[in-house]
Amino acid sequence: MLHHQQIRSMIERQLSHPGLFDSSGKACYQNPDGHGCFLWIPEGEPVIYIYGCLLDIEPRVDGQLLAHALALNLEREMSGSGAIALNTQTHQLVFRMTYPVQRDTNITPLITQFLNRLVQLRQELQQGRGGRGKPSSGRERQTVPVFLQSGSLAWLHQTD
Fold first, then answer.
1. Does residue 107 register a pLDDT over 80?
2. Does residue 157 have a pLDDT over 70?
């Protein structure tokens, strides 16, 4: 089994981005097309979690959009093995995929696949919203998703 530091080093090497991850295994990554995601390699697990923000929403008024997002979770051609969730603290719909990491894992096509799905899901949800790119409240979309600004993933992986 690969250790945390080995996984980080391997991925940084593959992405040609030394020092990408912080000491806790978290990183923001942006591809040349400008699409970004948040990467997390948890200590003690040979996996990488990849997160991306789909939309800012206002849960009280975007109920139909939330229902549409939940339905997309069941459409494997849209979501793959990923999941769409609502961050109730930031009012963002977030997409996440998890990949096991081994010595021969090539992360570049996995991130490309993730970002392609993220863009496809974002377009689908924006169409479901009537093409509006901002939440029903009129709140302007952040250039960097709030959950990336805080640097905290505690809300994503709470244990009871």
1. yes
2. no
